[in-house]
Amino acid sequence: MTTFKATAQASPNIALIKYWGNRDQELRLPANPSLSMNLAGLTTTTTVEFDPALKQDVLILGGSEIKGKGLERVSRFLDQVRRQTSEVLKTSEVSHLFARVESRNNFPSGAGLASSASGFAALAVAASAAAGLDLNEAELSRLARLGSGSACRSVPGGFVEWTLGSDDRSSYAYSIASADHWDLRDIVALIDVEHKAVGSTEGHAVAATSPLQAARVATAPERLAQARSALLARDFAALADVVELDSLMMHAVMITSAPVLMYWQPSTIAVMQAVRQWRLNGLAACTTIDAGPNVHVICTAAAADEVALRLRVIPGVRRVLTAGVGGPAQLIPDTHLRSIAGVKSAGYNLDTHH
Amino acid sequence: MTTFKATAQASPNIALIKYWGNRDQELRLPANPSLSMNLAGLTTTTTVEFDPALKQDVLILGGSEIKGKGLERVSRFLDQVRRQTSEVLKTSEVSHLFARVESRNNFPSGAGLASSASGFAALAVAASAAAGLDLNEAELSRLARLGSGSACRSVPGGFVEWTLGSDDRSSYAYSIASADHWDLRDIVALIDVEHKAVGSTEGHAVAATSPLQAARVATAPERLAQARSALLARDFAALADVVELDSLMMHAVMITSAPVLMYWQPSTIAVMQAVRQWRLNGLAACTTIDAGPNVHVICTAAAADEVALRLRVIPGVRRVLTAGVGGPAQLIPDTHLRSIAGVKSAGYNLDTHH
Fold first, then answer.
1. B93 vs B164, more confident
2. ipTM of the assembly?
3. Which of B192, B206, B212 to mutate to test the interface with A (most CBs of A within 10 A)?
4. Which fold has domain B184-323?
5. Which of A131, A305, B138, B197 has its CA 20 to 30 A from that of B351?
6. What CATH architecture does domain B4-179 belong to?
7. How many contacts does A have with B, using Cβ atoms within 8 A?
């Protein structure tokens, strides 16, 4: 009995120019182009095995079997892979097989780091390889996008741009600079949540209910061009201004949506206000915030230690996590898997205080 | 030697639909119409005396003589009164006289309550009466607007709408419901400021630098219509939604302006998140925030005590101040002045904690 198996790794990414809202909800065609950096050391490792013995798809996350909506989302994604297999490889039997998906993050769950980006990037690479598809980077990025929009940005390495595109084929991400272009850091301030978090699942779907979304979308390409130039020129001051503005533009849309999406907590503001002041006083650091209370402080390597030290004493900052610029999603040869499993919680720097 | 003297009182107002940005900066013609309620018990009392013995205008605020920019602003305002006097009253000698302006607030300075609205409303009423002008409410409102935009809303009583207008003559405020129409309360949570506040003086001037201002302005009339309907129908749930949305729309513009105007402090978010939760649990309260960290909690009379109790235990809330719906700006007969001076700090309810 033949089986088809592969393992891949991918990192989450932090958007410097945000993706918020879709033109096409089903195909996850974004309302605006976006720009991100992969986060080194944080990884999702995913093994996919298409197996004639299975009667349905199986999903195991962090050692626990997942059913219900989580499994359905992965199954729908695997359907895309099975469909491509039947179209491209006429003789393939994978198109009729179910798969076992085993996935593990080396970063703590509940840390507020979106794992859907690294998750679907790793799944796209592993599932397509297991199925015998030979996809190039752009094709893998498009495939990952179908699972989770921002996952398409975790396929290429380093600093990544997700082009708007006009349809499914043309909307994918590509690297505009490799990880070693600029040693930026993302120092994540993990924030205590005092109140029940607003659900974020439907966020993209409600973006268009804000009277401000159209203006945000219309001006995003200009901010992206500014961020790209600043990034390529390694001009931190220019990058900082546009990164903060773009994050605030997204939250401006969120807080004026129906329902209102107010992800900020008191300490979120404390960190934003503090970092703004630090930058006025010469520290090369700026903030960007995703759909949650945590604050990502983007800074130069020279400023990283100082930023981490200062963040730790801000009340309500639960932990501080540091990541550099990460590489692309990639296949892991079977022989490497044992050693990777052994270092699964040593790949990043996680400090805890009070 | 003849002198011309009058005294007037006015209350500050809290905008339920915000004024932010001008079409004409000089004439303070607003970018959008707005809606407010006057705050009962909080008053500015201002005496104006045009006096042939004076060699220049004199301004005394809370017992201290003010020079420089504060005096210049009041002098420019008095120039408007002098000009109207010379146009309307051909025989007037006031047009050539300087004035002594003495003004006093019965609410603490530094409480973060904008006193320019009550200040210029009281000044408009007192100065025009002292000069012998017989202005109606709309004319007084227009005059007050020239001193401070939102001051035009402190001239009429109760719930007040500032119509957009097309020019100086047509942009003024009028009452849409008297103070006894609905016993709403404004429970002001005064917030500790951890960092130096962003200057707000230039706020209106930079509103247009936000890519979101045009969309806010374009949709403001619709929100105003919703708020007006809810107010006239005494429908608190409908009012709450649009009041919170409109405040968030203004702050969305502020946080995306150049320079960024981030007035919120950690406790500002704590109060906003708390009140949102209380409302979900049935308490008739909602929040609105001006150009500062304090949170105005608008609520029904029935909810007021509970709101004040709960606000006092939120960390970072320095004081809680309660106001009802206030009346119009008005002239004070000379014989009443002595008794008013005696109660100048007893007209509102100010609670302090930790």
1. B164
2. 0.88
3. B212
4. Alpha-Beta Plaits (3.30.70)
5. B197
6. 2-Layer Sandwich (3.30)
7. 83
